[in-house]
Prior knowledge:
The structure is a homodimer.
Chain A: H1 8-19, E1 23-25, E2 37-39, H2 41-60, E3 65-68, H3 76-82, H4 84-87, E4 89-94, E5 101-103, H5 107-112, H6 115-124, H7 133-141, H8 143-147, H9 152-155, H10 157-169, H11 177-184, E6 209-212, E7 216-218, E8 228-230, H12 236-241, H13 243-249, E9 256-265, E10 280-290, H14 293-300, H15 321-338, E11 346-350, E12 362-370, E13 373-384, H16 386-395, E14 401-402, H17 404-411, H18 415-431, H19 436-447, E15 450-451, E16 454-461, H20 462-473, E17 474-480, E18 486-492, E19 503-507, H21 513-527, E20 532-534, H22 540-550, E21 554-558, H23 561-564, E22 577-582, E23 588-592, H24 593-604
Parallel strand pairs in A: 3-9, 19-20, 19-21
Antiparallel strand pairs in A: 1-2, 4-5, 4-6, 7-8, 9-10, 10-16, 11-12, 12-13, 13-16, 14-15, 17-18, 21-22, 22-23
Amino acid sequence: MPEPKSNELMEKIVSLCKRRGFIFQSSEIYGGINGFWDYGPLGAELKRNLREAWWNRMMREREDCVGLDASIILHRAVWKASGHEDTFADPMSTCKSCKKLIRSDQWWTLMTEQQWVQSLAALVEPGTDAFKGADLLKWAKGKGKHLAPQLALVRNPEVTLSWLAGEIEKGKRPADAREFYLYLATEQFGATGLITPCPHCGGELTAPRPFNLMLKTHTGPIESEENLAYLRPETAQAIFVQFKNVFDSSRVKIPFGIGQIGKAFRNEITPRNFTFRSREFEQMELEFFIPPDEAIRLIHGSVAKWDEGVDLTVPHANWGWEIWHRYWVAQRTQFYQDIGLGADVLDYYWQTKDELAHYARATVDILFKFPFGTEELEGIAARGDFDLTQHQKHSGKSLEIFDEELRNAAAKLTGEQKQEFIAEVQEDWNDHGKSREESAMFCEKLLRGTYLPHVIEPSAGLDRLTLAAICAAYAEEQKADVNGKVELRTVLRFHPRTAPIKVAIFPLLKNKPELVAKAREVYTLLKRHLASFYDESGAIGRRYARQDEAGTPFGITIDFETFEGVKEGANAGEKDTVTIRHRDDGRQERLKISELLPFLLEKTR
Amino acid sequence: MPEPKSNELMEKIVSLCKRRGFIFQSSEIYGGINGFWDYGPLGAELKRNLREAWWNRMMREREDCVGLDASIILHRAVWKASGHEDTFADPMSTCKSCKKLIRSDQWWTLMTEQQWVQSLAALVEPGTDAFKGADLLKWAKGKGKHLAPQLALVRNPEVTLSWLAGEIEKGKRPADAREFYLYLATEQFGATGLITPCPHCGGELTAPRPFNLMLKTHTGPIESEENLAYLRPETAQAIFVQFKNVFDSSRVKIPFGIGQIGKAFRNEITPRNFTFRSREFEQMELEFFIPPDEAIRLIHGSVAKWDEGVDLTVPHANWGWEIWHRYWVAQRTQFYQDIGLGADVLDYYWQTKDELAHYARATVDILFKFPFGTEELEGIAARGDFDLTQHQKHSGKSLEIFDEELRNAAAKLTGEQKQEFIAEVQEDWNDHGKSREESAMFCEKLLRGTYLPHVIEPSAGLDRLTLAAICAAYAEEQKADVNGKVELRTVLRFHPRTAPIKVAIFPLLKNKPELVAKAREVYTLLKRHLASFYDESGAIGRRYARQDEAGTPFGITIDFETFEGVKEGANAGEKDTVTIRHRDDGRQERLKISELLPFLLEKTR
């Protein structure tokens, strides 16, 4: 399948990933398995560093978040309650000719990648009906026969063209370029209207039908409906399901978060874009539980209003869901910036009201500018109390929490004030289509200090982040070698925090035992504390280049000055120093061996 | 189901795990799912620390090992080649009455846990036929009806007893206690001999049949044979499958290892012993690739022989598989010791020739003394070149490596020496049942410097290790409270390296702002670097006790002496000191705040 030229960069990255051991196709020696990838030595370290960065920032360094590590296979009832069993589906069509399966919402993208569409486009675009019948006829009887044998235009060129001409005469011309291909796939209107052509062979696609994305399995010795289980399609649900257990065992107070990193599985119809859309992937999700805004109002009199001036760095007790949501967008942006993904490579997409899931109050996607397009890295959703409500209802177990401060605040209200509060809530809820009974029940509980927490969910993909880190780091440099010959070299400019290898140690020459011995000594000193690599083979420039390609930010060379003392400059005469080379600008400086570890730890943590 | 009394300790541990947030039943609010467990906040941190300890020791601190992070779902052909699809099975029987499934090799263990077996045992044991018919008859018509309604003795007491008496008269008495229950389940010999009773109802079990333990799923939109895939039952195979990719991309040389940590799944018929035998678990596996002994002989003239005097701390180039195997047993033992699992809680089991898998040359199990028995924590197997051979054969891709040193050594041999070498190898291989053609082909390649590496596999279970760490840490103490009342308290004596929380920070009193402010300052200082917990609520003794139960090794208290200067002792008058309390002996010492971080990092890393 020919890829558009814009993917040349992506091809280079994929090739580098294999060559340097970042990412391999899963089961490659058996021809691979579509949608599954393996991380090689450098990739595994890179991914580990990103995973650690998330965990440290989101769990260890925070006082208000705790971790969870739940199983991939959960009780089937979890997915019933969450809605995944009934509605977690993509629309899918099948080709009646070649039997290939097409994710309906990817149809046009797939079409634009096909050779037959590209060759047809040259004949008709940009106008949708500015084509010459003779050109199409020639195409249909030539190229078309090989490229799209099942297309109506190819199977029956004269009939299709005359039908098309007739339609255009009647004024029923194709509305746009996309629809033009539907006309070419149709000899005449059938009962179901225009035919959608298969991107692969031009044949007729069936109408889209929902295809559930969860991978199924059976636990226990019998493959029965009773034993049916799913591989989790997201890590979030286990957090909701264990919310009460965590709350009861961990001395946390609302607001607080539960975070989890782990594998999830989605049976993507068409895995795409290298590791970006795969069938097995790793998520990093936080569910941050907050009081409903009504509780804030009871305790603090009002809920703080969001505007650009709000200081998002220090949480405040009178924040409602809207500011908490903004807070997490800011926090996550800061996280990306701190690992080297700054404003230049990120973008944001605020979902419109129409796009939001029915329970969601706001969702922001943090996007990354991949070579294949600007795509989602993380979604940050304000989900209300939808998830806990669902699990409470389906499990029959109370997931409500009791808040003493809230109860005390409510106890101070007069009967009249309470009635006023209830009336306000009822009016507000009524505007959101909820019944008087629902809001009355909610208020009654709230005034007793009890509620279901609401949730803000920053949900990131670790594989996507790993790929983003590689894409952001990828750079090519023109460099002259010692003979003045210019060569194109690849450098991965990883942030030192995420680089798989932090430092490489080189003796200037391999055949000088004292250089080698000292270099081994430095290596042994460093590797206990950070990922280090020792290399003595080849010219020093070659060794630098190899490390540049692996993304190693620092190179240490042990040379004769290490023993004989520095020859010139500020620290002339000083012994036991080494050269430290910076990957990104090639800058070299001399450091004492005793200063290396603190210097490197400072830079890489 | 009544548990034997020896499990009282285990019950306490399970209960502590839930209460303090170490381990929860998966999907608990939906009634749980058999064989799946979730790690709560403390458990997730404990497991992370153990995972990190393995990775750091086995990957980062070593020069000869690199990591891999492969997918859970691999190509089905992988499991065909590895033998899992055809032979990875446990024997299973079904009860013809209650339809329950019994893993045949667990039948007797299950039986001993049943109330009906326990009550019968009192009537007949220890002799196998020293019973009174009257007692059995009474039991059958009383207790038996409730406990084992489908047992022949219960359904037809007179017939069964008279048959049993007849058999004994004929000298065909039960051989042992186990067989006695077979007699009680049989009214008369059928075509298949004695009946094995179901532990649950006493009914008849079917003959054992193999039950494959791999969990199945389908990838891609159609549930066809072609799309069938398995969840990996071990992480090892992905390492073999990617061996060549790693070798080609990572500048490693034999001997070297590839390590992986990740989830694996086995459809255990009867998940047992808390998290010990579950259906979803995490493995930490290393495949350490070494040359075949014949290559060592060619290069070094001979292979070093194993005896107790061999220094296992520094690998030597003339080691063959046997010493490498011993080396890894020693390495892994050291690892366990370094995280607090010493000789007192470990044991070893060397598999006998009969027990070894056909391809294995030696296997040692490292066992841990769990409350429910001494069970496997890790297996260390010398697997020869079985795995790479299988994958090479099934994939048709060469997995051989080229060794220049070997080729050079072989090139120095005379024709006569080569013939001699080949003859020796052929004789040796012949003794192991291999054909002349096989050994000739092997020698021919070897003399050209080419071979398939052999492998030593230390394979550990992370969930088992987590459970072992909890069991080893669990202790109960009699402590007198301030009023002299003695209470039983639980302490988890985790090694500081593995403890989920490293240090807790307490202001002596909650209502003294200067104490609280200073305590917060210390907390903020520490938590960036290590898992820290701040607690100001309750009496200080109560706070210590809570941390003891969480296994926190160090407690720091900020008191008035922090401000006013130490009252007495060596550092009298000194300000900005805190009390640091040691969990295990309650010992307290004063440390300067500036000394805290280096002190704690030294102890916990």
